[in-house]
Each structure stands twice: as C-alpha cells, then as structure tokens.
Design brief:
Layout lengths: L13 H9 L5 E4 L4 H9 L5 E3 L1 H7 L10 H15 L3 E4 L7 H14 L3 E5 L18 H14 L4 E6 L1 H5 L1 H14 L3 E4 L5 H9 L7 E3 L11 H7 L3 E4 L2 H20 L12 H7 L2 H6 L18
Parallel strand pairs: 1-8, 2-3, 3-4, 4-5, 5-6, 7-8
Length: 307
C-alpha cells in the first residue's frame, strides 16, 4: 500500500500510535532506518517502529555527527521514512538545535513531518556521539528548561530526555538529572553510554515506573546485549541506531572496490537485491495501479549474459 492511498494513514496521531506500542507487554525493539528504503525493509521484517539516528543521518550526508545538520535536514529524513514505511518513527533531536524557542520549533517541525517520538540530549554544542570522550554537558536546569519547552510545544509527540551524565558525572548525577527531566515533562529517559549490566540495572532500579530506552550501538562502550536482556534489566525500548547504515556502507565499499578491480559488477550480483525484490519492497505495482495510464511493468527474470 502506498502513501498516496488514503487508507495508508492511521486516524490516530503518530505520538498516540507510539504510546500504544509502549502500552503492550514487553520491550519495544526500534531498529535504525537511515532512509525510506531501509524503513520499508524494517517494516517487512516485522518491526512496529523505527529510529532515525543523528549519526546515521549525518553520515549519509557525508558529515560527522557534531551537530552540523539542521532541523530542516532532519525533517526531510522524517518525511521520507514516515511516508515510505508508515511506521511510527522515533527521531534523534540532538540538543534541540538551540535554546527553548528552537526546541519548540523542532517539536512542531518534527510533528508536522510525521514523527511519533523524539529524544533530546543534555549536551552542549558541538555535541558528540554519546559513546565518545569528553562530552560537554548543559547544566541540569538548562536541560530541564528545554524539556519543559518541548512539552509545552507538543501536540502529540512522545518526548524522551537523554542524559549523557553517567560517563563524566557518575550514575548518581545521571539519575538526579533524569528525575529532574521527568518533572519537567519528559515521558521517558534515555541513559546514554552505560557500560555494564550492573549500571543498566541500577539505573532502572532507581527510576521505578519510568519508561527507559537502551542504546545498543556497535563499536561503542556498551557490550552486546539482546533485547531480551535489556527487558530483563528493566528497559522498555531498545534502539540499534546506526546499524543499517553501517551494513549498507560496508556493502557499498565492497561494491566499488569490486568494480575497480573487475571492471564491472558481474562478481557482485549475489550480494544484490534483485529488481523483483526491490520493486516488491517499494510497492512498484501499487503505485502503477493508482494510475491507469501506466502500462503494467514486466520485470525481467534473468540477467542477460554476454558471449
């Protein structure tokens, strides 16, 4: 079903759809989807929500994750992913792109673009990935003011406050910040860069009744845990933020190396999504069916062989 069909859209707001997912028993797995095609593949795999990572969006634009991209850049990704997949999308709002008024503008822009949820972090610019060193933090009061501004501006979007304080200020400070952010209007907390099972469990123990988000990023400080383990630790959501981009980027790297080496793509065909499968994923037939002037496409079944 394409986004051009009225039946594609739910009568519920995106935020309410996200809340309904969290109301179900168990943990909500939210894989990263760095573009529309990736979000469609996540939906076809059976996921009920997806995530837009600032790091993945930045990298897909050839930029570092240092707060360089703008709220309008992100809104373009949000529109792409929501209309491609129809899934409720959790969006990385970085530091809010400024202070209180900027945060409010971000909230409205994300909602207008179709976002279901966002997270806002307590770093200051230039911000860094949460698993890197020497992050600079905003004061708890300044971050709480941003959370309050976001809550004031929203119509339906689900707000997650992220704290990066555990690495530099310790677990006590991270918990204190989290409680302040909940008081300011956050719906959930994202404690970033926890590095042991004990830290995850301790944070959850000290935030009873608050939905918590865990970040299972590769090549970071957190050991590999499964969604079942995170659920056992006391977490309600888990993201794999940059994974789809990393896998796609590695495949592209191999492709270009093969073309350079072999003079063509003939040795890469087994690693490709076929035309038939690609068209099924993007619902090529569904789009054609909406326009009677288009003659139905017949997909070639085999790759022509030379000589």
């Amino acid at each position: 079903m394409t986004y051009l069909s009225s039946s594609f859209y739910s009568k519920e707001t995106a935020g309410d759809r996200f809340r309904a997912l969290l109301a179900r028993p168990g943990i909500l797995p939210i894989p990263g989807a760095h573009n529309g095609l990736a979000s469609q593949q996540a939906a076809r795999a059976g996921f009920d929500a997806c995530y837009l990572s600032g790091g993945a969006m930045s990298a897909s634009m050839g930029l570092p994750d240092l707060g360089v991209i703008t709220v309008d850049d992100v809104a373009w990704f949000v529109r792409q992913v929501t209309r491609a997949s129809g899934l409720p999308v959790l969006v990385d709002g970085d530091t809010g792109y400024g202070e209180a008024l900027n945060v409010m503008h971000m909230v409205r822009t994300f909602e207008d673009s179709g976002a279901a949820a966002l997270h806002l972090e307590d770093q200051i610019l230039p911000k860094k990935c949460g698993h890197l060193n020497d992050k600079k933090l905003a004061s708890p009061q300044d971050m709480a003011a941003k959370v309050a501004a976001a809550a004031h501006a929203r119509r339906h979007i689900y707000i997650i406050a992220r704290t990066d304080a555990a690495a530099s200020e310790g677990i006590d400070a991270a918990v204190a910040r989290a409680k302040l952010y909940i008081e300011a209007g956050a719906d959930a907390i994202f404690p970033e860069a926890l590095i042991t099972e004990e830290m995850f469990r301790e944070f959850a123990r000290r935030m009873p009744g608050v939905p918590l988000l865990a970040n299972m990023t590769e090549f970071g400080k957190t050991p590999f845990y499964t969604q079942e383990q995170f659920e056992d630790f006391g977490y309600k959501m888990v993201i794999w933020p940059v994974t789809s981009l990393r896998v796609a980027a590695k495949a592209q790297e191999n492709l270009y190396a093969a073309i350079k080496k072999d003079g063509g793509t003939h040795n890469c065909v087994e690693q490709m999504l076929t035309r038939k499968d690609l068209y099924a994923t993007i619902d090529y037939d569904g789009f054609e069916a909406l326009d009677s002037t288009i003659v139905k496409t017949i997909v070639p079944e085999a790759i022509p062989q030379v000589g």
